[in-house]
Amino acid sequence: MRIAAGVEYCGTKFYGWQKQTRSRTVQQCIENAFSKVANHAITVQCAGRTDSGVHAFNQVIHFDTTSIRENHSWIFGANSNLPEDVNVTWVKQVNDEFHARFSAFSRQYKYIILNRPARSSVLGNLTSWQVEHLDDVLMSESAKYLIGKHDFTSFRATACQSKSPIRVIEYLSVKRHDELIIIDVKANAFLHHMVRNIAGVLIHVGNKKYPATWVKDVLQARDRKRGGITAPASGLYLIKVNYPDEFNIPSSPNCISNEFLQILFNHLVVNRE
Question: Which of 139, 160, 220, 260 could form a disulfide with 156 if both were Cys (CB 3.0 to 4.6 A apart)?
Answer without folding.
Answer: 160
